[in-house]
Amino acid sequence: MTDTSAPTRRAPDRIEIAPAAPAGAEGSGCHGGAETMRDAAKQAGNTEVLDRYEKDYPVGPHDQPQSMCPAFGSLRVGLRMRRTATILSGSACCVYGLTFTSHFYGARRSVGYVPFSSETLVTGKLFEDIKEAVEQMADPEKYDTIVVTNLCVPTASGVPLRLLPNSINGVRVIGIDVPGFGVPTHAEAKDVLAGAMLKFARQEAEQGPVAAPRERADKPSVTLLGEMFPADPIGIGQMLAPLGLAAGPVVPTREWRELYAALDGAVIAAIHPFYTASVREFEAAGRKVIGSAPVGRDGTAAWLQAIGEATGASADQIAAAQNAILPAITGALAAKPIRGRITVSGYEGSELLVARLLIESGADVPYVGTACPRTKWSDPDREWLEAKGVRVNFRASLEQDIAAVEEFGPDLSIGTTPVVQHAKAKGTPALYFTNLISARPLMGPAGAGSLAQVVNAALANKARFDRMTEFFEGVGEGYASGIWEDTPTDRPKFKQKYAAQNAMAAKAAEAVGS
C-alpha cells in the first residue's frame, strides 16, 4: 500500500517534446523560450529545416526584431489565393490570435485547425490527425491546394509534415513549418510559403505540361517578386513597354496557375529583396534576378537599365524607355515637394524604397530601419541611401528605431505602432507604415506624388500636437498618470514588497499538485 500521509511534490505539467527527447527537454513547451525550442526541434529531426531558415533569414547583426507572429505572413498568403485551403497545427491560443488578425485584415474564408494534447503530440497521433484532416478537405471541386502549417510546438516536437502525400484526390498538399523561433518576421514567412509553392510548381512543369494561366502576355514578361499596391504592376507594365516587355505575375500569386507564368518570366524583379527561398527557385529555373524597383527618378532610370541589360534590350530601347517616363516622374516630384526631417522604420520590406522616394521628393531622411535582413538584392537601394548620408539599419529592433527618433528629432516619424506611439507621446507627428504608407503606389509617376498628400498633412499637424502637449502638460505619467486632486506619492518599498510576494506566489503555483 502506498503511504499517502506525507505530501509529495508533483512535477509541473509540461508538454513533452518527443518520445525520444533528451533529458532536460521537458521544459520545451511554448513557454520554454526560443533557444530551448530550437534545440528541441533539431533533436526531434527538424535540423535541416531550421538550418535552412538560419541561412535564408539570418538575424544578425541584431537580435530577432520585434514583430507579430511570423506565421501571420504565410497564413495571409494562403488566404489570398483562390481555391486554396489552409490548416494550422499549433497551440489554441496561437491559432486564435492568427485567425483573428487575418480576419481583421480582410480574410473571407475559414481556417482549418488540428488541435493537439500532450498524448497526441508524443505518440505521433497528431500527425495522423493532420493527415486525416487533409484527406477530408481534399476535394478537387473546391481546391487546387491545401497548405498545412506547423506552428511553434509541433515544429519543436518534430511533427513530420514532409511525410504528407504530395497530392490527395488531385489536390496538392504543401506542408511548411513556420515557428517563431526559426522565421524572424511575418514578411519572411510569406517567402516560406511562396518558395514552397514555387518549388512544387517548378517540379510540376519539369515533369510535363501544366495548366495555362488565365491571362498571358503576348511578349516576354518581368515577374514581380513582393507584395505591392495593386496599381503599381500596371504602372510598371507601361514603363516596360518600350523595352518590348510586359509586367508578369506578382509573387506571392493569387492563383496556383500564375506560379507557372511567374517561373516563365524573362527576368525576375525582386521588388522586395528578402524573398530568398523564392529567388532560389527562380534561379533553379534559370532566371536572372534584379534588385531594387522603379521608385523615383534615379531608381526608375537604374532599374530600367538593369532590366533592359538582363533581357538583351538595345541601348536605344533602354534610352527610349527612360526618356518616355523620367520627365513625368521629375514633374510629379517637383509638383508635390515634401519639406521636413523624417525617420522611416517598419517590417514590410519596402522601407528603403519609401525612403528613396521621400528623399527625391525633397525630404531629409537621416534614418531608415527595417526588420528585414540585408541581401544582395537590397544593395542598390542601400548604396544609394548611404551615398545621401542616410543611416540604414537592417534587422532593426524597436529600441533602435525609438533611439533614432530621440537622436534625430524628426518632424515626422513613419514606423510601426509602438514607434508611432512613442513619437506622438513626444508631440511629434507620426504615421503607421503598414496602413498609411504601404497602401499607396510607389512606382513611376503615380508613386512620385502619392506620399506627398499624407506626409505633408501629417507634417502640418505639428501645431495641433503642440497644443495637445501644452493642454495635457502636468497630467503625469507612471504612478502619477491621470488627473488627481492631490499629487500622488511614489512608494517604491510597496512595489518591492508586492513584487517579492508575487514571485513567491508564482513559484508556489508552479509546484501545486500533490
UniProtKB/TrEMBL annotation:
One GO biological process term: photosynthesis
Domain Nitrogenase/oxidoreductase component: start-end pairs: 69-458
Protein name: Chlorophyllide a reductase subunit Y
Entry's Gene Ontology molecular function annotations: oxidoreductase activity, acting on iron-sulfur proteins as donors, NAD or NADP as acceptor
Species whose genome carries this gene: Allopontixanthobacter sediminis
Top-level taxon: Bacteria
Broad enzyme group: oxidoreductase
Recorded metabolic or biological pathway in which this protein acts: Porphyrin-containing compound metabolism; bacteriochlorophyll biosynthesis
Stored Gene3D superfamilies: Nitrogenase molybdenum iron protein domain (3.40.50.1980)
Keyword tags: Bacteriochlorophyll biosynthesis, Chlorophyll biosynthesis, Oxidoreductase, Photosynthesis
Region spans: Disordered: 1-35
Gene Ontology CC terms: membrane
EC number: 1.3.7.15
Keyword field contains GTP-binding: no
Keyword Oxidoreductase: yes
